[in-house]
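Question (not urgent): is this output format expected?
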Amino acid sequence: MREKLVQLGWQGRPLLWVVCYVNQTGGSPLVEEARQDIQASIEGGADGVVLINEWCSLKELETVLQTVRPEFSNIKMGVNYLGDDNEPYGFKDSFRLAREYGLQMVWTDFSGVDQINEKPDIDLHKIQNERPENVFYCSGVHMKYSTLRNSKKTIQESALQAMGWVDGIIVTGPKTGVATDPAVVMKAREVIGSYPLGVASGVSPQNIHMIRDQIDFCLVASSLQNENKRIEKKKVRDLVLEIKK
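Got this back:
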């Protein structure tokens, strides 16, 4: 599985993928917000960006991609469509967008490995059959904002089950902006060996040293934003410097 990571620029240190929220503020034109975030991310030294639609529709997300992908065709770009009532896991349209716009990464919050109260059960083979061959697909276990139906299921069990169903396993803290417990990262790493592992909440220049040697990639937004919820180039650069230590 590391072959895909190498193609994305992995050289033994965690890759930094900046998460660009589409329409988080509801202010300036969506394309311009995304353009600013992408530019700041790349100038700050990020390895790539992932667009996510938490505050906009699928149509708005795709409209933004239609504009910014040609403008930034030389960078690594991914997407996370969070889904809707018809597609609660968001994988079908995330994969479709990746195919149609030449994206290298797809991130979905919930891999379907865990049975959770917030989502219906999913046939993992359906996800597998939709996956584009050359796209790095990462998704989570024991994810934030989810409640396991089996409260006794350990992170180790979930991480082991996720191997093969995703290209990269994601763990998080309890909510957005809260760092992942290093002990959780360690427990996952101990059972999956060298299988790609990432985190998707709370990473910052102040705490990356606690998990830097255990992860292969990180998805980061909150710690890189300014007071207007836009990605700030200096904050990206500061995190990149800490990752490279």
